[in-house]
Every structure is written in structure tokens, then in C-alpha cells.
């Protein structure tokens, strides 16, 4: 048997390839993938042949935002039984002797992530009809949560982690810079966490409309630098991943406030208004992926306390994967784009 998968071969060369059917290790389950969310890193591999400093050196099966059904349980008895609906935690921490906090495995220097070219050989992703995945990655869905609704669990965990890095946001004024899928999920998490004001900036009006539908109390065009500087936010979550977005974030933050950088900035040295960090005594913190927040996300999706209506704007069949990528890169047209594998 074979399984079709979405493989990046080089910049501008992503193909729907026939792959060998998975041969699971004893601690791996075979999962029939139902949905995969197109992430910014997938788009970077497609458009540039690299995501940040992770450069394609061999064909890479893409995809880390996936959900599906266990088809064959792990032979060693670990993990969920066959027939279980699951979300996937795509990280594998790995100790290399370099120091990192033991309670923050997302910072493991040797860690791998599904669908990543950071290491050689590359870490295959799960944009494929059937995938062999470590049983420890699999998170059974709570009762009543559908696979389609759970398809946002991985990026929502990234947003949940970023909001946690902001500290207690209850009753506080928060600005979110960038209303792409991660920014929108940050809005949803902030609303759930009790922020009194959630203001969102972006370059395109459709993204701001989606933010308002999620509960944003105000929006401002990213081009209106003066309006952004007047926001005086207690917390700013920078999710655009652009130097200009970071400059806006610093200008918008009140004295003694905090800026959380979740958008991945371009590699190399970047300009930044660091004088404001000093003169305003700002806390400038990074936020990278997540630890185990995916479990909290799944529970919040199941009980309805995390509202994500409208974040998914498009769904494509696997045969139309390239069209899905084309749509996902157009922020004026799309929020989160899903690919349906089965």
C-alpha cells in the first residue's frame, strides 16, 4: 500500500507524492489523518525552501498541525486504542548536553518538530493520509469534540503559551499586533482569560473583521502609527513576525508594560527601538511553541470556553493542496486553511 503526502522538494516545488505506507516502531501508532492546518512554516518551505534558519537539504514531508483517528495502536501497548480520535503534539525534546530549564522542554536545543528541516535528516511531518507517530504525541479528544474543531489545537496551544508568557491579563488592556491565524487565536485566548480590552492591528481589513467577530474590543490599521502609539497597552503580543510589527508593539506599550514576541522574526540582525525598552522599563519576552498547553486547549474547545468561530475560513481536499497553500498565503482572503485528508 501507499499513502499520498505533501512533500516540499525545493523552493516553489511542493508535490503530492505517493509515499510508502507507514511501518510503525513498537511505540508508534498508525494514525489516519483527517485534517491538517497550513502553518506559516509550511508556506515558507514552499515559497523559500527554508523556514528561518531551517533550510531544505532533502525532500521534506510537511505538516505538524494534524488530527486524526488511531488506525493501529502502538504494539507496545502505550498510547490510545484503535478507533480513538486524537490531536497530535508534534514536539520531541532531546537532550544534547546544552542547558535548558527542565520544566520547559520546548526550549530543548536538540528537540525536533514534525515537518521541520532544522536537523539532518529532516523530521518528516504528517501531511499524509496515514502516518506512524509516537504514541506519546497523541492526545485523545474529549467527548463531544470533533476532529475538525480540534484541528486548531496545535496553533491554539502556541497562542495559549504566548498569553501565559504575558502573565495575568485579567482586567488589562492588550494589543495584538498581527491578525493572522496565531494572532486571532491569541485574541480568542485573551478573551477567555478575561482581558478587559483586546485591541488588534493588522494591514488588511478582513483580518480585523475576523478579530472583531472573536471579541476584540477595538481594531486599528497597522499603517496608522500615531493611533497605535496612543494605545498605551499594558501588554502587547507581537504576532506578525516583522521588524515593523515589533516597532509598533514597543511604541504601543505603556511604561512598565510587557511585550510578548510570538511571531518569529526574520533571521539575522533586525532594527528595534530598544531605547524604549530601557526608558519605559519594558519587559520584552519571547514565546516559542508550547509545553503541554495543548491539553488545556482541547478541554477549553470541548467545554466551549475557547471560542474560535470564524478562524478557519477555508477547507480543501488533499487533491487541491497547492490551491490550499495559495489561499493560505493571502491574508486578505484567508484565516486558517485546512486540508482534508480523509
Describe the protein.
With 342 residues, the protein is of the alpha/beta class. The chain has helices at residues 40-48, 147-150, 153-166, 181-193, 205-213, 225-229, 243-252, 274-279, 293-303, 321-328, and strands at residues 2-10, 13-20, 28-37, 50-51, 54-55, 60-61, 65-72, 85-88, 91-92, 112-113, 130-134, 138-140, 173-177, 197-202, 218-221, 233-238, 253-261, 283-286, 312-317, 336-340. The strands form five sheets. Strands 3, 7, 8, 11, 12, 19 and 20 form a seven-stranded mixed β-sheet that branches. It has a six-stranded parallel β-sheet with strand order 15-14-13-16-17-18, sandwiched between helices. The radius of gyration is 20 Å and the shape is globular.
Quickly list its features.
26% helix; six-stranded parallel sheet; seven-stranded mixed sheet; 342 residues; alpha/beta
Q: Quick recap of the structure?
A:
With 342 residues, this protein is of the alpha/beta class. The chain has helices spanning 40-48, 147-150, 153-166, 181-193, 205-213, 225-229, 243-252, 274-279, 293-303, 321-328, and strands at 2-10, 13-20, 28-37, 50-51, 54-55, 60-61, 65-72, 85-88, 91-92, 112-113, 130-134, 138-140, 173-177, 197-202, 218-221, 233-238, 253-261, 283-286, 312-317, 336-340. The strands form 5 sheets. Strands 3, 7, 8, 11, 12, 19 and 20 form a 7-stranded mixed beta sheet that branches.
Amino acid at each position: 500500500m501507499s499513502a499520498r503526502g505533501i512533500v516540499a522538494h525545493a523552493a516553489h516545488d511542493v508535490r503530492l507524492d505517493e509515499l510508502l505506507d507507514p511501518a510503525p516502531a513498537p511505540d508508534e501508532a498508525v494514525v489516519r489523518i483527517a485534517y491538517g492546518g497550513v502553518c506559516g512554516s509550511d508556506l515558507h518551505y514552499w515559497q523559500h525552501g527554508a523556514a528561518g534558519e531551517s533550510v531544505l537539504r532533502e525532500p521534506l514531508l510537511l505538516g505538524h498541525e494534524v488530527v486524526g483517528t488511531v488506525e493501529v495502536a502502538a504494539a507496545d501497548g502505550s498510547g490510545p486504542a484503535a478507533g480513538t480520535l486524537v490531536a497530535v503534539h508534534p514536539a520531541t525534546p532531546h537532550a544534547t548536553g546544552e542547558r535548558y530549564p527542565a520544566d520547559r522542554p520546548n526550549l530543548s536545543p536538540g528537540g525536533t518538530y514534525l515537518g521541520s528541516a532544522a536537523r539532518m535528516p529532516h523530521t518528516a511531518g504528517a501531511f499524509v493520509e496515514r502516518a506512524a507517530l509516537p504514541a506519546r504525541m497523541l492526545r485523545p479528544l474529549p467527548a463531544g469534540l470533533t476532529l475538525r474543531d480540534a484541528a486548531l489545537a496545535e496553533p491554539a496551544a502556541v497562542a495559549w503559551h504566548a498569553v501565559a508568557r504575558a502573565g495575568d491579563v485579567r482586567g488589562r488592556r492588550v494589543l495584538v499586533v498581527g491578525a493572522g491565524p496565531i494572532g486571532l487565536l491569541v485574541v480568542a485566548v485573551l478573551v477567555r482569560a478575561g482581558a478587559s480590552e483586546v485591541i488588534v492591528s493588522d494591514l488588511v481589513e478582513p483580518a480585523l473583521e475576523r478579530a472583531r467577530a472573536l471579541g476584540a474590543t477595538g481594531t486599528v490599521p497597522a499603517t496608522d502609527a500615531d493611533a497605535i502609539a496612543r494605545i498605551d497597552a499594558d501588554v502587547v503580543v507581537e504576532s506578525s513576525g516583522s521588524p515593523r510589527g515589533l516597532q509598533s508593539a514597543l511604541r504601543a506599550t505603556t511604561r512598565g508594560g510587557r511585550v510578548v514576541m510570538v511571531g518569529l522574526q526574520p533571521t539575522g540582525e533586525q532594527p528595534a527601538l530598544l531605547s524604549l525598552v530601557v526608558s519605559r522599563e519594558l519587559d520584552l519576552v519571547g514565546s516559542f511553541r508550547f509545553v503541554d498547553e495543548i491539553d488545556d486547549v482541547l478541554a477549553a474547545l470541548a467545554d466551549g470556553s475557547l471560542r474560535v468561530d470564524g478562524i478557519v475560513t477555508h477547507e480543501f481536499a488533499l487533491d487541491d493542496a497547492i490551491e490550499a497553500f495559495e489561499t493560505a498565503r493571502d491574508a486578505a482572503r484567508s484565516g486558517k486553511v485546512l486540508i482534508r485528508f480523509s
